[in-house]
């Protein structure tokens, strides 16, 4: 046995073991003590006093803790307050960009021209096909419009993934495709711009791209107006990413229902396009345009360009079709500018309505020989007959009665070198040569007298004839009437400038002379029984890109004002490069204007003239 084990055994032997009697005595003592403590009356027992140093320690800990807490709060709120606020804002704030549709665009009668709608787009990913491509093409073809299995197979070969197959699918088509459960076939839902009238007003409306940004027409020029008020929304969120209701504005899901209303009359637009298409086809012309303006305020009731495009499928069209050439392209107006020049001469007092001018058929200016289109003279004719015969020679004689400087200043008053400020993108200003060049050479005055040697846009010509119709005021051609609600109530309207450029009495005299062009002159093809209409034909040489004129290329046009007894509407028809032997303003453009005027009379309820 080791020494340590021996010591433990000895100590156990020496320790007294309790007997049964001792155990009972101890238990009774403990019990009696518990009973005596329970039975002792209150107040008899005195708790042992807490040492003073313990109280001091507790209070010291509490004071130090309060000081530390206060210091920490000072650090967090005062010293680091701004920094922590920024951190909290970045962690809690979230920028929501809820889908807010662009405003709809409607015509003057409330017909929808552009709106947002839910669109189903079909994509295929050949790399994910689990069936033969032939089987997938055969399954999709009956559902899709005008796409054979062979067409689809060719599309499948374009690339391995992300091939767009069809857009604008109906709900029924989308449901049928979903039921096929084909791997590698994907249907996407998105809101897209929709143009229910297709190409009828595309040159006016324009289109939006895949990012829903306007790229042409009103969609571009009125981009800010088309966007609704709520562009983005900042809200607070919890640590779990849930939006805190208290920080969500009450009207977050509301947006005003205002629409952009145009001055356009869709019915007249359709009639004008049909009339223009017929003549373009008949004369195999390059392009054409029709403009109808209410001269009282500049409202455009119709603006047609051909050829055009379908804004729903703009990507299938040539880029050059996206511009509206009535505001972006310059041309020499030719004889349609002669009524404007007559007004300038009348206002200058160098002629009167009964003034007689001798037309010999030719005149030489600065060594240049100028002829009438007919190559013949008209003899002694008054001012109305000058317009009826569209005499170039007589116009040169009339405008030479003004000094070159005076004539130039009067042309500047017409704002030929300025834009009309129409609410369409891409407008260019007209081109009038500098005063130095114009006054230095007599040929400049001569060619300008019959509408050549300078250029303007078709819209500018309509604006100038509007001044003849409305008593001499230059109004702003425009398409946007304003913002209206679903009830048609106008909530906002753009303001346009008005400028007096021609004496009211002079403008009236010129309009009455233009009536004789229709009744007795080159505009007879636009006669409408019981209605008094003024007009002027134009057949101008087409300027080349490097100066001079293009051989066998011309622009034919006809401008009309009606009704003569109370002039209000201006109609312009322009056809560029008609083909054939009998291509003049009277034969190509005037019939278009006549059809448009007939539609205008019917749609606007213009009563027959009292006298004719």
Describe what this molecule looks like in 3D.
There is one protein chain. It is elongated, with a radius of gyration of 44 Å. The strands form 6 sheets. Strands 2, 3, 4, 5, 7, 15 and 16 form a 7-stranded mixed sheet that branches. It has 612 residues and is of the alpha+beta class. It is built from 21 helices and 20 strands. 38% of the residues lie in helices and 20% in strands. Pfam families: PBP_dimer, Transpeptidase. Residues 288-598 form the Penicillin-binding protein transpeptidase domain.
Q: Largest beta sheet, briefly?
A: 7 strands, mixed
| Residue windows where pLDDT falls under 50 for at least 5 positions | 1-16, 19-40
Helical fraction: 25-40%
What general form does the structure show? elongated
The H-level CATH homologous superfamily of the domain at 268-604, spelled out, is: DD-peptidase/beta-lactamase superfamily
Tell me what portion of residues adopts beta-strand conformation: 15-25%
According to DSSP, the number of beta strands is 20
Radius of gyration: 44 Å
CATH class of the domain at 268-604: Alpha Beta
Structural class from helices and strands? alpha+beta
Protein name: Peptidoglycan glycosyltransferase
InterPro entries: Beta-lactam/transpept, Beta-lactam/transpept-like, PBP_dimer, PBP_dimer_sf, PCN-bd_Tpept
Pfam families: PBP_dimer, Transpeptidase
Domain Penicillin-binding protein dimerisation: 101-213
């Amino acid at each position: 046995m080791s020494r340590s084990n021996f010591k433990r055994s000895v100590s156990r032997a020496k320790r007294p073991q309790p007997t049964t009697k001792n155990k009972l005595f101890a238990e009774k003592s403990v019990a009696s003590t518990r009973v005596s403590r329970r039975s002792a009356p209150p107040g008899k027992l005195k708790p042992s006093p807490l040492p003073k140093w313990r109280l001091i320690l507790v209070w010291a800990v509490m004071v130090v803790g309060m000081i530390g807490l206060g210091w920490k709060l000072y650090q967090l709120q005062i010293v680091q307050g701004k920094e922590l606020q920024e951190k909290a804002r970045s962690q809690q704030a979230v920028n929501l960009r809820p889908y807010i549709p662009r405003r709809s665009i409607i015509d003057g009668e409330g017909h929808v021209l552009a709106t947002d709608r839910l669109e189903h787009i079909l994509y295929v990913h050949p790399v994910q096909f689990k069936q033969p491509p032939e089987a997938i093409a055969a399954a999709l073809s009956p559902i899709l419009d005008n796409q054979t299995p062979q067409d689809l197979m060719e599309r499948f070969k374009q690339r391995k993934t992300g091939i767009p197959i069809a857009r604008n699918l109906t709900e029924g088509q989308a449901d049928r495709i979903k039921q096929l459960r084909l791997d590698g076939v994907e249907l996407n839902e998105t809101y897209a711009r929709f143009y229910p009238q297709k190409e009828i007003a595309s040159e006016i409306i324009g289109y939006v791209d895949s990012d829903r940004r306007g790229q042409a027409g009103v969609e571009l020029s009125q981009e800010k107006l088309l966007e609704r008020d709520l562009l983005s929304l900042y809200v607070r969120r919890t640590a779990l990413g849930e939006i805190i209701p208290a920080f969500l504005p009450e009207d977050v899901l509301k947006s005003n229902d205002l629409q952009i209303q145009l001055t356009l009359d869709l019915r007249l637009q359709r009639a004008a396009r049909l009339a223009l298409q017929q003549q373009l086809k008949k004369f195999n012309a390059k392009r054409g345009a029709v403009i109808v303006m209410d001269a009282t305020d500049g409202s455009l009731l119709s603006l047609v360009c051909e050829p055009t495009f379908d804004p729903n499928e703009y990507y299938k069209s040539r880029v050059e079709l996206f511009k509206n050439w009535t505001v972006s392209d310059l041309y020499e107006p030719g004889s349609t500018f002669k009524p404007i020049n007559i007004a300038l001469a009348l206002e200058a007092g160098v002629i009167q309505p009964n003034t007689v001018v001798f037309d010999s058929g030719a005149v030489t200016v600065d060594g240049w020989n100028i002829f009438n289109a007919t190559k013949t003279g008209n003899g002694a004719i008054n001012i109305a007959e000058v317009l009826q015969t569209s005499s170039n020679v007589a116009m040169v004689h009339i405008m030479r009665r003004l000094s070159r400087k005076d004539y130039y200043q009067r042309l500047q008053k017409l704002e030929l070198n300025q834009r009309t400020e129409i609410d369409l993108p891409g407008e260019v200003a007209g081109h009038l040569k500098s005063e130095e060049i114009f006054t230095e050479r007599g040929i400049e005055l001569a060619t300008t007298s019959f509408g050549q040697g300078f250029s303007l846009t078709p819209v500018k010509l309509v604006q100038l004839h509007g001044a003849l119709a409305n008593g001499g005021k230059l109004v702003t051609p425009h398409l946007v009437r304003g913002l209206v609600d679903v009830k048609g109530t106008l909530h906002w309207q753009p303001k346009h400038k008005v400028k007096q450029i021609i004496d009211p009495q002079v403008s009236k005299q010129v309009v009455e002379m233009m009536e004789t062009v229709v009744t007795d002159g080159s505009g007879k093809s636009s006669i409408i029984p019981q209605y008094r209409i003024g007009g002027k034909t134009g057949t101008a040489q087409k300027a080349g890109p490097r100066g001079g004129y293009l051989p066998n290329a011309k622009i034919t046009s006809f401008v009309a004002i009606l009704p003569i007894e109370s002039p209000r509407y201006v109609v312009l028809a322009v056809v560029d490069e008609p083909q054939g032997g009998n291509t003049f303003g009277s034969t190509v453009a005037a019939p278009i204007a006549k059809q448009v005027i007939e539609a205008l009379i019917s749609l606007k309820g213009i009563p027959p003239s009292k006298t004719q």
